[in-house]
């Protein structure tokens, strides 16, 4: 598995794998300023809900290290949080990670500045390490849903590069390969930015998983053929009632899965749960540059000049279509609100 995000050895910059260059080129970028990090998140050089949370946590620490001697340090940290949070609006992990960093800042506000900055570095590393541990648990719960010979359909990319290690929806597939369980994966290419073709196919092939790439408009036919036993996808924000935002195209897959009687599982760490947003209608859907639709992944024009374009990056799956949400605390099923509260209550008590 390739490493996607880390702090440089001396801690003064963030090193990320540039995911826009995959699969042709494995190249790393060194980000030294908040503006560079903002652009990297905005342009999907680092992407995937948990991964942008981890990158933002390191970014928050870097801002503190840079601004620590400023007289208006705490105000400039609030500005840094707002700025980084505005890079992408839909994935809750971005604001979740920044809010957690702010909590660490507030708890340690009276420490000498150097020590405060060291605490923030520790918190960012903890967010990263917890994500690795959570992914492994999520992957184990997901693997328990699979049987030898199963076909699984996935969309976009919820693998190691979208998180920290193993990934969420791809984790069970990677564990299956490690343990010699033979499954077959159908990966949607995921228009317009091709995360499925460029990243999911790449990650699964590297791990020796039997993966077949399909265009998004082929999913219905593949499901109808009886080759798909389950749909596994990630999530960017799960609302209190269970409605869940993920990459545009996920909603259509959920509707199709219901029609063909195929279980539809979404995968996410509990940090993707947004209990402050009651239903999917409250989720802000990121609208992206029309060029992503009219140009062939920024290489060649494929649509008439000046054509009107609609380019939402995400859609929201209605909770009635979700068989279960696979988390590090187990698989949560309907009634979602009641069961989310139970799981979150248990987790909070366990942490006390
Ligand atoms: O726009 P992207 O590539 O960041 O979208 C990613 C997804 O939709 C993933 O499924 C989601 O973030 C979960 S990643 C574990």
The computed structural class is: alpha/beta
Number of strands: 14
Which cofactor or ligand species appear? 5-S-methyl-1-O-phosphono-5-thio-D-ribulose
The biggest beta sheet is recorded as: 7 strands, mixed
Oligomerization:
single chain
Order of helices and strands: EEEHHHHHEHEHEHEEEHEEHEEEH
Which residues form runs of ≥5 with pLDDT under 50?
A: none
Distance between the termini: 34 Å
Helix content: 40-55%
What's the tally of helices? 11
User: How would you write the strand order of the largest sheet?
Assistant: 6-5-4-7-10-13-14
Percent in strands: 15-25%
Rounded mean pLDDT is 96
Gyration radius (Cα, Å) is 20 Å
Shape: globular
Report on the architecture of this protein.
- The two termini are 34 Å apart.
- It is built from 11 helices and 14 strands.
- Strands 6-5-4-7-10-13-14 form a 7-stranded mixed beta sheet, with helices on both faces.
- It is an alpha/beta fold.
- The model has no long low-confidence stretch (mean pLDDT 96).
- The protein is 41% helix and 15% strand.
- The site of 5-S-methyl-1-O-phosphono-5-thio-D-ribulose has 19 residues, from helix 2 and strand 9.
